[in-house]
Amino acid sequence: MAIKKISYEDLATAQREIDTVVNLEHKNIINYYNREIDQEMKFVYLGLGLCEGTLKDVITANSNFNSLLSDPSKE
Known about the structure:
This protein is of the alpha+beta class. Helices cover 35% and strands 25% of the residues. It contains three helices and three strands. The chain has helices spanning 11-22, 55-62, 65-70, and strands at residues 2-7, 32-38, 43-48. A hairpin with a 4-residue loop joins β2 (32-38) and β3. The radius of gyration is 17 Å and the shape is elongated. It starts with a strand and ends in a 5-residue tail after the last helix.
């Protein structure tokens, strides 16, 4: 599980993100598990499924990303 920490002052953004991920079910979308609001420290913590690797890893594994970087005319 990964924990994302969002400033309590940006609670509207956190709520929009929660509303979005709660309703998404896709193999490429990280799962939402729970949220905790720490009013004393003024943070919202989101419990999310851990993403393995980086975006570049996923793109590289599923496309000819590296060849496009070296020669954009191949696009």
